[in-house]
Design goal:
heterodimer, A: Cyclophilin, 10-stranded antiparallel β-sheet, 8-stranded mixed β-sheet, elongated, B: Cyclophilin, hydrolase (chain B)
């Protein structure tokens, strides 16, 4: 069992989500940065889809009541482990030790792991060997922050049981992770014909700044307002996908994240391709991004 | 005639006249590579896996004929409603009719779930009497109780769970619309026929 001493700004239980229920208004949710969740699970010898903690920024503190193999992936930054709550070993002062991300970490019974503030990126994933045991809702342990489905956000004092998702012993000591850089790749449409030629051009030729309104539902971008051909025309609600770039009437685009509503009434000018979706999880307010149109 | 648009590299968006007929046809065909089918007001989203040949899939779905509803009377869900909503008076004022007439016209219509969205189990019901078309609130309520029966624009709906909401409240039903312990958690699924029946409080 592990005990959350502090969840930091936000810590959620996530796995790879619950696709298949969108027709009933339930989105897929799941880890925002899926590759990092998969990697964390592989590092500790879990099934790739095992349940992890997704934590925003720094500040998550976990007290391990049992010795455990742990991995932290996602954002870059420090990971500290210090000697524990209620554990004393005479003559051995507990100096915190710095640990690496993207490596299996061996945490002893009673020790406390702390996620430091990210130096790059925003969301970190903490996998524990065997995974975290929480009840599944519609086939997933993911917290959908918009739909209010799945385990409640993690609070200080929460006790989390370990699951049975471990499959193999950890195989590697460290994985070199290189953050993908360069423009976000997008496919124009499905409603690019609602926008002026200038707007379509601006999407992929001007810089976009990440606004402060960013969460798992959507990431708002600031830049040249994207103008429509017919500003007063209304779009009948239609299904939307993660990565869809919706443009509300004010012209500031919003890129939909994993907890997006299943339908939306704003035209989608372009959609971020699947391979670049994980990068959205690591955007921070003030980051500047470029987009490039691609075809598949 | 189906117009097929790409919606990123994992989905196609189909513009169709008969949304539910297209959903029925797609579900019956069970095309390889298709992972999810979602209805919108006038569109159908067809999600596919990474390995799907998207251009072949697009050609394939463009040629699909919508499937007619099965013969016989379609199943209809009747929801008993206590018409005590806070916005009855406002709707009556906009429509230029009495509150009693608002209720009579809301009860008098046949509805069908067009699609779900906004929140889990929230069904957009087509069929509202055109005289009851009222825009949603400029500033949504922060808390609308579960079971609230509401209208906005050309739609009616019942809030399946407590949530914020900007629709005009006409009343409430005690029938549960959302049950996570049920194999299909939503009572109102796309295509379902719905009627409202007035009951006294």
């Amino acid at each position: 069992m592990i005990e959350v001493i502090s969840p930091g700004p936000q810590t959620l239980v996530q796995d790879l989500g619950r696709p298949g229920w969108a027709a009933l208004g339930v989105g897929s949710s799941g880890a925002f940065d899926r590759a990092s969740l998969r990697l964390a699970n592989r590092l500790v010898g879990n099934r790739e889809s095992a349940t992890c903690l997704e934590t925003l920024g720094g500040g998550l503190e976990i007290h391990f009541r049992v010795a455990c193999v742990v991995a932290v992936t996602g954002a870059e930054g420090s990971v500290m482990v210090r000697g524990g709550v209620g554990v004393s070993q005479p003559g051995q002062p507990h100096r915190p030790r710095g640990e690496s991300r993207n490596s299996p970490l061996y945490v002893n019974e009673g020790e406390v792991l702390t996620i430091g503030p990210p130096t790059a990126g925003l969301r970190s994933y903490v996998a524990v060997r065997r995974g975290i045991a929480v009840p599944h809702v519609l086939g997933s342990a993911s917290r959908d922050t918009l739909g209010g489905i799945g385990p409640e956000p993690v609070l200080a004092g929460d006790l989390l049981d370990l699951g049975d998702d471990g499959t193999h012993d950890p195989l590697v000591d460290h994985v070199a992770v290189r953050a993908r850089s360069g423009p976000l790749r997008v496919m124009l449409g499905p409603r690019e014909d609602w926008f002026t030629a200038d707007a379509i051009s601006a999407l992929t030729t001007t810089h976009w700044s990440v606004a402060t309104q960013i969460d798992r539902v959507g990431i708002r971008l600031l830049g040249v307002p994207l103008s429509r051909v017919e500003p007063s025309r209304e779009l009948p609600s239609e299904p939307v996908v993660s990565g869809a770039i919706q443009v509300p009437p004010d012209g500031s685009p919003v890129i939909l994240g994993p907890d997006h509503p299943t339908t939306g009434g704003y035209p989608v000018i372009a959609v971020v391709i699947d391979a670049d979706l994980d990068r959205l999880a690591q955007l921070r307010p003030g980051d500047v991004i470029d987009m490039r149109a691609v075809e598949v | 005639m189906t117009l097929v648009r790409k919606c990123g590299d994992r989905a196609l968006l189909l513009e169709v006249d008969d949304v539910h007929g297209m959903v029925r046809a797609l579900e019956a065909l069970d095309l390889p590579g298709v992972t999810e089918i979602v209805a919108g007001a006038r569109t159908v989203l067809v999600s596919h896996g990474a390995d799907a040949d998207v251009n072949a899939l697009a050609r394939r779905v463009a040629g699909i004929t919508p499937m007619a509803e099965p013969e016989g009377d379609p199943a209809t869900i009747t929801l008993e409603v206590i018409y005590d909503g806070d916005d009855l008076g406002v709707v009556a004022g906009v429509a230029g009719i009495s509150v009693e007439e608002v209720i009579a016209r809301h009860v008098g219509a046949d509805y069908q779930v067009a699609f779900c969205g906004f929140s889990p189990g929230f069904a957009y019901l087509r069929g509202l009497d055109p005289s009851l078309v009222v825009p949603r609130l400029a500033s949504p309520r922060t808390r609308v109780p579960a079971g609230s029966v509401a209208i906005a624009d050309t739609w009616s709906a019942v809030y399946p769970r407590e949530s914020p909401g900007g629709w005009r409240l006409l009343g409430h039903t005690r029938t549960p619309l959302w049950d996570l312990t049920s194999p299909v958690p939503a009572l109102l699924t796309p295509g379902t026929r719905v009627r409202f029946a007035r009951i006294a409080s």
